[in-house]
């Protein structure tokens, strides 16, 4: 998937403001960003559901603005607000959708993969919110997609369902499926994605490997301890062991309140996004972002 200079303007407002991005075949890519950043707009353009104002987009070798039925059958889409309701049962709705694809997965296999065996004969409208979301996921994968779009797929899932979903995504990835995931759960992105992009105010702030994004400096461990006088200290260091050893030597005993904290993807993400977010919580303009983050890392 290749995106160059993508823009989407609503009225005078640029929701997507010049995005360049490549997503490689077979990778799982997480698109991260605060509410209103432009994630869904970008994803919907890639899915062919939304027109773009400017830029070039290539998805599985096709411009989504002109993607026909064959192209669509190669995609799997889990929209942000699916909510497949109505009078059909889980198995019936999946059978119906499976019939629209040339090479669908067996319906019962899909039902098992999303953990809905016990509800296969229940009407979708009678399922809980989290169970309906699992139906959305099932509908996204029943066509055996080459490219799967997951827009906040696990919203409303209980912790066990989320773990089960992660296993499902790993197995799809192992089969070679390319996956574009948007999520507000940073642990989910860290668990599943090979690479991530952070977007705010329609611009990509950073793109990189899930263990690299934000740069090395953002991942330096933080050591916290309390000294003999009861004063709290914290220091960032690449050599936390040596720092702890020197603190122990100085105190002559185990330090109180000792902690070594390694920044998580969530910490790194929050640092990135806060650097371009105004104090009142509104995201600043695109020109300010360009100044704040400097040059973006190019992706292959
Ligand atoms: N049809 C529309 N008309 C006008 N503005 C829109 C339209 N759709 C989206 N927007 C605006 O574009 C911006 C980006 O919205 P988008 O839904 O892409 O954000 P998002 O990153 O997916 O947010 P969230 O995390 O809340 O889902 C928002 O400011 C939104 O209000």
TrEMBL record:
SUPFAM superfamilies: P-loop containing nucleoside triphosphate hydrolases. Keywords: Antibiotic resistance, ATP-binding, Nucleotide-binding, Transport. It comes from the Bacteria. It is found in: Cell membrane. It is a peripheral membrane protein. Residues 1-226 form the ABC transporter domain. GO terms for molecular function: ATP binding. Gene3D superfamilies: P-loop containing nucleotide triphosphate hydrolases. Pfam families: ABC_tran. This is ABC transporter ATP-binding protein.
């Amino acid at each position: 998937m290749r995106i160059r200079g993508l823009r989407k303007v609503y009225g005078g407002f640029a929701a997507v403001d010049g995005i360049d991005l490549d997503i490689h075949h077979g990778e799982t890519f997480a698109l991260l960003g605060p509410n209103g950043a432009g994630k869904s707009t970008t994803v919907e353009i890639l899915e062919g559901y939304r027109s773009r104002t400017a830029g070039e987009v290539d998805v599985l070798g096709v411009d989504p603005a002109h993607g026909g039925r064959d192209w669509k059958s190669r995609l799997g889409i889990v929209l942000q607000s699916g909510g497949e309701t109505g009078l059909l049962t889980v198995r019936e709705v999946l059978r119906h959708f499976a019939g629209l694809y040339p090479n669908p997965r067996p319906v019962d296999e899909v039902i098992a993969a999303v953990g809905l065996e016990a509800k296969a004969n229940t009407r979708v409208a009678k399922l809980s919110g989290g169970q309906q979301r699992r139906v959305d996921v099932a509908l996204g994968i029943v066509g055996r997609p080459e490219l799967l779009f997951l827009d906040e797929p696990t919203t409303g899932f209980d912790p066990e369902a989320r773990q089960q979903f992660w296993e499902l995504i790993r197995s799809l990835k192992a089969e070679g499926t390319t996956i574009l995931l948007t999520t507000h759960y940073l642990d989910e992105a860290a668990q599943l994605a090979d690479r991530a992009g952070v977007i705010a105010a329609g611009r990509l702030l950073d793109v990189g490997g899930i263990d690299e994004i934000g740069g090395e400096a953002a991942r330096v461990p933080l050591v916290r301890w309390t000294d003999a006088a009861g004063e709290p200290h914290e220091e960032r260091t690449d050599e936390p062991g040596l720092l702890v050893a020197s603190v122990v030597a100085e105190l002559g005993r185990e330090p109180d309140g000792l902690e070594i904290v390694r920044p998580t993807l969530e910490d790194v993400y929050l640092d990135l996004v806060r650097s371009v977010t105004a104090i009142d919580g509104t995201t600043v303009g695109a020109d300010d972002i360009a100044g704040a983050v400097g040059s973006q890392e190019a992706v292959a």
